[in-house]
Amino acid sequence: MGAAQEMLAALLDGDRSALARAITLIESTREADAQVARSLLEACMPRSGNSARIGITGIPGAGKSTLIDTLGLRLLDHGHRVAVLAIDPSSARTGGSILGDKTRMERLAQHPGAFIRPTAAAGHLGGAGRRTRETIVLCEAAGYDRIIVETVGTGQNELEADALTDITVLLLIAGAGDELQGIKRGIMESADVIAFTKCDGEMLARARLAQRELQSALQLLAPRAHGQRPGTYLTSALTGEGIDLLIAEVERLAASQTDSGYLMQRRRQQDLLWLDHAVTEALKAAFNRHPAVAAALPRLQKAVVEQALSPFAAADELLALFRTSGEPHP
Amino acid sequence: MGAAQEMLAALLDGDRSALARAITLIESTREADAQVARSLLEACMPRSGNSARIGITGIPGAGKSTLIDTLGLRLLDHGHRVAVLAIDPSSARTGGSILGDKTRMERLAQHPGAFIRPTAAAGHLGGAGRRTRETIVLCEAAGYDRIIVETVGTGQNELEADALTDITVLLLIAGAGDELQGIKRGIMESADVIAFTKCDGEMLARARLAQRELQSALQLLAPRAHGQRPGTYLTSALTGEGIDLLIAEVERLAASQTDSGYLMQRRRQQDLLWLDHAVTEALKAAFNRHPAVAAALPRLQKAVVEQALSPFAAADELLALFRTSGEPHP
User: Fold this and answer.
1) A175 near A148, Cβ under 8 Å?
2) A45: which chain B residues are within 8 Å (Cβ-Cβ)?
3) Does residue A141 contact residue A11 with C-beta atoms inside 8 Å?
4) Are A74 and A244 in contact (CB under 8 A)?
5) DSSP A237
6) ipTM for the whole complex
7) Most buried residue, A84, A123, B285, B321, by most Cβ within 10 Å?
8) Scanning every residue of chain B, which has its alpha carbon at the shortest distance from the alpha carbon of A318?
9) Burial tier of B262 (Cβ tally within 10 Å: 0-12, 13-18, 19+)
10) Contact state of B275 with A180 under an 8 Å Cβ cutoff
């Protein structure tokens, strides 16, 4: 039995440490690991897909971890197995500390039905997205049927989050009428559900006002591809306010997307997008690490910025360098 | 004197038909024309940049042509020379009829200080954007100091429009509270100025209400990179309502962007974006026209859609085919 088969058996058996090892394997940059990782992934593929993939996004401080902790426990109560994956650009600085994430979601981390994993800090966004895409496949094969993908809504990775999940929940803190300050509109665009967090005590009245304002604003904007505008919810992880309503809405959306066939269509479109994305990333990587291109790029960028050369002439020059090399291949 | 020098002299002389011929040259797909076009463009580069590049976008029926006709005449009255370029995906069907555009902007077309040109229908968007980028350079070298770029705001090309112009004016028709229906939010995101059109007669009261609603909604969204939220204007090409205010706002923005240095910074960022875009497009084109890749692509896409293969395994297979060929080059 090969390494991939052995790991697959333990993983299908529901062994959490096997799942953790499998994720470490696909995150590995070692050449020897790549082939095993690929076999494992291809074997998991037919066993994947049976989950609701839920994106949770919001700016730092929006209360993502606290809400996921509460939400996750409630989903476990409903008999689900819950995996939480985090794409956090800032984890490049903290080293993607698993301990950090487990502390942030303290109650969930102690539950045997939950699995929490940050996406290891990657050099570039494309890599983190791909690894998260593959981690979802592993988690589903391991029997997790509610996958929560946490992203920091800074406008850098909302497109990737949209290509990873079925449903996006945007978290907002109710402010003084300016609750969307700093939120890129592209994030609003991909929200299926919007939840105000920390709606307790003195904040509750303010949150009700913010909710009404937001609902008017949403009426002015185009609905999502599935034809619905995002519902808005007031939640508090402290008092439990709105959590059941929020879960009910997410579950309702998941069921309706499955029934209508929208889900299958969306996931297949996502797959074709990842195919295209992977090809483009590989081509660009091959181009950028080409020695002659890398050597000429700073000079040509400078010429473009100084308007000594048009961007198209600069591109032609770089492409000629790439073309005339002995090893231009991705 | 070479063909490029001859054309350059006529163009700098302000000869409108020389400008039209120069644009036809850069639009040409003939190999022989490409070198002349490139020389001409590089010669025009140092003489370009001295204009306000104004994007006008809106859904079909928003009244773009009528507003541009009125706006253009007013700019001519102010002593400007006005060029109107249109990126219209639908021109692929009509053949990009110049007559059509001239009929749409009847008064402007008859004025000796104006130049109207649709971007010839291109196979793909990237090509149309690039040609418009180059046409702007030619128009500026020919002395046009107000360049209006008209795009259909269908969400397909707003990013390219944003990479072409300094200021984006979004046109909306005042409806019954649903004036943004069908407008992709990405277009709202790139608007510097929003103008309601056809604000005359019975529509005026409705437009005033729509304007107030829109202003509230805009308060909830993040401001643009230059720190300002879009101003909203009520205009009528019929009565002339609001046209002077709209022009004053566009001119104020143009002056303030120039004074603050934002304009130079933005244009250099656009140039680096075009460089990157041109490289990526060329790499993807080389990949897609590779015989082995083109032959295998339908089968692999089918396997991905049927979940027999992961998108990443399919990408690896395609890249291997590209790599092992004798002529993989862009």
Assistant:
1) no
2) 307-310
3) yes
4) yes
5) T
6) 0.79
7) A84
8) B279
9) middle
10) no
Q: B100: pLDDT confidence band, cut at 50, 70 and 90?
A: low
Query: Chain A contacts of B40, Cβ < 8 Å?
Result: none
Look at residue B302 in the predicted model and tell me its pLDDT.
95
Q: Is the pLDDT of residue A97 over 50?
A: no
Please give the Cα distance from A31 to B213 (Å, whole number). Answer: 57
A-proximal residues of B, 169-208, CB under 8 Å: 177-186, 188-189
Token representation of residue A207? 């949150």
Whether residue B326 is predicted with pLDDT greater than 70 in this model: the reply is no
pLDDT in tens, A6-51: 899 999 998 999 999 999 998 888 888 888 998 999 899 889 999 9
* Total-model pTM: 0.77
b/e A242-278 (16+ beta carbons within 10 angstroms → b): bbeebbebbbebbeebeeeebbeebbeebbeebbebb
pLDDT at position A92 = 40
pLDDT at B303: 93
- CA B208, distance to chain mean position in Å, is 29
Angle at A68 between CA A64 and CA A69, to 5 degrees: 120
Enumerate the residues of chain B whose CB falls inside 8 A of the CB of residue A41.
310, 312-313
Q: Are A221 and A200 in contact (CB under 8 A)?
A: no
Q: Please answer whether residues B40 and B4 qualify as being in contact, where contact means their C-beta atoms are separated by less than 8 angstroms.
A: yes
Query: Tell me, what DSSP letter sits at residue A230?
Result: P
Residues of A in contact with B175 (CB under 8 A): none
The tally of CA atoms less than 13 A away on the side-chain side of residue B94 is 13
Smallest Cα distance from A45 to chain B, Å: 7
With CB atoms and an 8 Å threshold, state whether B284 touches A282: no
Q: Which of B116, B121, B132, B139 is nearest to B50 (CA)?
A: B139
Classify residue A156 by its DSSP letter.
S
Query: Which residues contact residue B296 at a Cβ distance below 8 angstroms, ignoring those fewer than 6 apart?
Result: B317, B318, B321
